[in-house]
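Sat 14:20. Reprocessing the chain from the morning session after the first attempt stalled halfway. Input below, unchanged.
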Amino acid sequence: MFDDPTNAWQQVDHRMALAREWDELVEQVRELPGFEEFLRPPRLEALLPAAANGPVVIVNVSRWRCDALIVTTGGVEVCPLPGLTNTDVEQRALDYLNVLHAAENAMAVLVEARDRFDGGANSPEAFRDYTAARETFARAQESVETGLANVAEWMWDCVAEPVLDLLSIKDVPPPGKQPPRLWWCPTGLLSLLPLHAAGYHHTVDPSPRTVLDRVVSSYTPTLRALIEARADRPADVDERLLVVALAETPGQVPLRAVASEVDLLTGLFPTRTVLDGDRATWETVRAELGRHTWVHLSCHGDQNLTDPSKGGLLLHDRMLTIADVGAGQYHGEFAFLSACKTATGGLRLADEVITLAAAMHYTGYRHVIGTLWSVFDTSAAEVARVVYTELTSDGRFTPARSAHALHNAVTRLRDLDRNRLSAWMPFTHTGP
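Finished this time. Tokens:
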């Protein structure tokens, strides 16, 4: 109840006047060239071009029902996913993150115990600690492989197989022919899971039940982001490679394969800029990003799932956050996030989950190769070797082929050891 009815009516009149003023201002903006759709929801026909090079699969997860919306240039088709539930997604994502976190923690303990033993503490106690840490890490890594196999098979049964069946993608392409392209656009906590790796990978089958053997997968945060990624870019940025390499970062596990990545890139790119060690500072890296079209980041990363803007790359002196990168208005062509830890954080705000690769893509990088969690740097170095060798095979660097190059690299790793899913599963491509 209002104590003063006159004052109450005055407040109502004032709010109505503000609402009318807002409507008038919006209409004025919409009269400006290029702003006709200002604050309007996008028209479907304006979004369908996102599927120009292959279907985009938006996987919608809700407590009422789950469906895949398959977008092609001809329209949108609904693929019901009766085997997928919001509760299952939450539990699978939690189990997945738990085994990954346990392995990361075990690795940190192992590195500390090894350094203490190698540093001269050759006591029986130091040896016992090191041996115990190795056994704990081995058990944690075994749990990772089991957990990844379980989630990959569940994603195949509940999501990937129904989608590929509806698209009539049921066979491996014939020799010499590239698999078709397909973009995944997951929602909620499903964004944390590797849909591109869904399938049964432990056996070789003439008609393999895997996404990897049937399509070349990419990710896009939204349909509009995919359309914008295909737009022309400013021509005033030199086509040069920036290499940020930190083999040692305070408080982090050493990345022993960084040197081999630097050797690879300096051999393939005559013109490049290398920032390593104490030269890879926040201020220097941020400045150089705007001067280079391509960037290779061989360092640790971190992701804050409750506040994605606080995630970023761990440089020599401080973190270069996603907010920092976004504020720079970069228009890069290619970014390779090598050996980055990008799946740490909580599970709150499920509808706002975003990977570090997707965040880099939002800030302006057309093609982004990233990792969903911490990977062995030897695996990252091997993926980098295959990707860059293929992208420079014709004498010049062609990032437009990065999705196929990554697909070939991870398929090769998968086929080397089908029981070691962690070696290849984290790697993703985001972009056109």
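The two ends are 57 Å apart (CA to CA).
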